[in-house]
Amino acid sequence: MRASAKVFWILGVFLLIVAVAYGYVTGSYEPMGVEPAGFPALLAVAGLAIMIAMGLTLAAKKNDVGPSDDLDAEVSQHGGVQGSFSPYSWAPLWTAIGAALCFLGIAAGWWIFAFGVIIGVYGILTWVLEFSVGQHQH
Question: How many domains does the chain have?
Answer without folding.
Answer: 2
